[in-house]
Amino acid sequence: MVEVLFNGPAGRLEGRYHQSTRENAPIALILHPHPQYGGTMNNKVVYTLFSCFRDLGFSVLRFNFRGVGRSVGTFEDGPGELADATAALDWLQHANPEAKICWIAGYSFGAWVGMQLLMRRPDIKNFIAVSPPANEKDFSFLAPCPTSGLIIQGGKDEIDNPQLVKDLARRLNMQRHSDIDYAEIEEGDHMYNNHLVDLYKLAGNYILDIINHRRAPVQKVFTPEEEALMLANNSFYDDYDDDDDVDDVDINL
Question: E-assigned strands of the chain?
Fold first, then answer.
């Protein structure tokens, strides 16, 4: 993983990037939660998603929206952050011109921005949305949702209403040609405290199902082969708690 700086609409954007050693590896962009409530690219949920894609052989980028960390600019509550995400995806694709598969994943505010981005970029083939803020943001722009994806929600989320998120997933699945999976971590709070490994496994199972053209339930357990693939470097389980890049904050939206 290396630090990267690239140009955004408001100036320099700061990111962390992993380049896969696989030829023509797929790519993934990870978006962080609300900047005004402590959200950064170093949030633990964001790092979990980053680790999951990395361990599955993706080239993957997470970055700070404008005004966060060393990224230049001022928070705009949507339009500016969407422009930042567009610039980040452009950078990621330029670094991986042979990549044929592109995913986007976001957490809370980042999930909302990510789902707006996939409406504008037909090159995004799949998404993962963790705790999309259905009680605060309008998702009616997903009309229809252009690609398949997975929505993950904590059953004891104290910030995003779990029932509203479940209703969002149900509405999306009522659209023609829509294929949206929904998974709930029953005891998970908004920060997924003590449930980050569950989140990692749910996301990993879904990615593997798509890669292998399976549509089994996302709650399935790993096969030994899949477990070996995801844990090849022991990077998530062994090094997670010691990673200096990961924030430990109280509130992230």
Answer: 2-8, 11-18, 27-31, 59-63, 102-107, 126-130, 148-154, 180-185
Pseudo-torsion of CA 125, 103, 27, 239, nearest 10°? -150
If one counts every other C-beta atom within 10 angstroms of the C-beta of residue 174, the result is 10
Give, in degrees to the nearest 5, the angle at Cα 105 between 103 and 108.
160
Is residue 45 a contact partner of residue 110, using CB atoms and an 8 Å limit?
Answer: no
Residue holding tokens 């970029």? 121
Element (H, E) at 253: none
Whole-prediction pTM value? 0.87
Cβ count within 10 A of residue 226: 17
Query: Burial of 15 by CB count in 10 Å (0-12 exposed, 13-18 middle, 19+ buried)?
Result: buried
CATH number at residue 143: 3.40.50.1820
Burial of 21 (0-12, 13-18, 19+ CB in 10 A): exposed
pLDDT of residue 228: 52
Structural domain of 31: 2-242
CB 185 within 8 A of CB 195: yes
- Which residues of the chain carry a pLDDT beneath 50? 216-222, 226, 230, 232-244, 248-253
Q: Would you say residue 252 lies in a domain?
A: no
Report the C-alpha gap between 94 and 170 in whole angstroms.
Answer: 36
Domain count, the chain: 1
User: Does residue 194 fall inside a structural domain?
Assistant: yes
Cα–Cα distance, 198 to 20 (Å, whole number): 24
Q: How many C-alpha atoms does 5 have within 13 Å on its Cβ side?
A: 6
